[in-house]
Design brief:
The complex is a heterodimer of chains A (246) and B (279).
Chain A lengths: L2 E10 L2 E11 L4 E5 L6 H8 L7 E6 L2 E2 L7 H5 L2 E4 L11 H11 L5 H14 L15 H13 L5 E5 L7 H16 L4 E4 L3 H7 L2 E6 L2 E6 L1 H6 L4 H12 L4
Parallel strand pairs in A: 3-8, 3-9, 6-7, 7-8
Antiparallel strand pairs in A: 1-2, 1-4, 4-5, 9-10
Helix pairs in contact in A: 3-4, 3-5, 5-6
Chain B lengths: L6 H37 L4 H8 L2 H41 L6 H16 L2 H14 L8 H27 L2 H9 L4 H31 L11 H12 L3 H35 L1
Helix pairs in contact in B: 3-4, 3-6, 3-8, 3-9, 3-10, 4-6, 5-6, 6-8, 7-8, 8-10, 9-10
The chains are: A alpha/beta (246), B mainly alpha (279).
Chain lengths: 246, 279
Amino acid sequence: MLLECRDVRKVFGDHVILDGLTLDVAEHEVVALIGASGSGKSTLLRCVNLLAEIDDGTIHLDGEEITDPRADPDRVRQRIGLVFQSYNLFPHMTVLDNITLAPVRVHKRPLPEAKDQAMQWLDRVGLADKSGAYPDRLSGGQQQRVAIVRALVNNPRLLLLDEVTSALDPELVGEVLSMIRELKGEGMTMVLATHEMGFAKQVADRVAFLDSGRVLEQGPPEQVLGDPVEARTRQFLTRIIDAGRL
Amino acid sequence: MTYQPSTRQQERIAYRRGRAVRSVLLAAASTAVVGVGLAVGITGAPGWERVKESFFDLDTAQKYLPQILEGLWLNLKLLVVCATLALALGLLVAVLRTLRGPVFFPVRALATGYTYSFRGLPLIIVLYLFAFGIPGLRLKGTPDVLVLGAAAIIVTYGAYLAEVFRAGIESVHPSQIAAARSLGLSYRQAMRHVVLPQAVRRVAPPLLNDTVALQKDVGLISLAGPIDAIRAAQIGVAQDADFTPYIVAGVLFVLLALPLIAVTDWVTLRAARRQNAGT
């Protein structure tokens, strides 16, 4: 297993967000996390990336316990990419500088080499002409694609995507989703929290339904989204269908 | 076919032009009224002749201008040195105050104590303490009173600037740090490459404003002895029993501040515009 989360607990004050959550992700697997707001999807991703400290349980990456307090969080994060709902590009840097920052400063790669690699990626996602632009000149979809490239140039073992299309206008969602689909084709291991059930169905190998801080039900997308076992999952999907999102 | 404004639009344009002309005329008229009022009020005052003689005497002004200018050169040098070092000190203290973890407790406490006490202490008292107190210790290698005075200014302004920098650092959204850390950057790298550049940009207008205030406060160094523009003017005032040299020094200070104020306004305007473009 590439990622093993065992009995993970996360508490904010009196509020239990993750309540003994267990989830495994195999290499090259794409797992979609679904569930209501507050069910713990984003929190789980932040815990895996060590941006939030867990209150119990363990998380292993490549067999190494990353929640060991002696582990160096910076080294762990170098192997995990995280893409945020609100892109979080650095507004004072050009697109190119956003992408080359970590390769140059963290991975100590020579600047020309990092630039070349960044340009290749930008070319691939059709944004080469935006390399010198500042993020506020880009559409949301363009910004999010840059954010994904920024995570990918570090060659992460695992890519975490936190509601990456939720802040986008509907007509811009497609360009980001097709990029993720392409990454799946290349064998990238991904865990994505999403509200796009249709997309989860297309791209995920497995869908995990989170409820009250646990994985209540998981399995192939057709089963979980089409014929769920648990009553709570069915309730959730009914609400989604009523909202016209499936 | 080329675009031709409709008659309705032409009416609108004509009406707006009329209003514009009217407001320019109104502004000119009210300015004239205020100006004449002030002139009559001041020059008509019973003591005006005496004041004119002892504050606005051209001969005295010419006589002391060279000395005051020479003093102003010292102010200018002091301004450059003090502003640079106070900005560096302020930035350092602000960053120290953001450090987390038990190891840094003494550093954090010291930095906090410094900003609290030196923002409260009047500059004049700090100046006296540094310029007269430190030499009083009779330590070997005590620097010149000019250096001590400058140090007093730097330490006092550093405390203010530290708080401005800290406000800037805190205004950078935590998601920016999260993004930087998620890429594997260490706390230091995130600070250096992501937080500080944005923070400094945001607080550039208040920082420059404090530099304008510093520009005139370097004149207080005259209290410790060095002959700057104010001290030179004071000497002139004492010799001729005429206050004109102070006016000369005042005018020179304003002239010195003008470029700095203009830059501040320009930076502020640009920052405001950029912020509006962002939303």
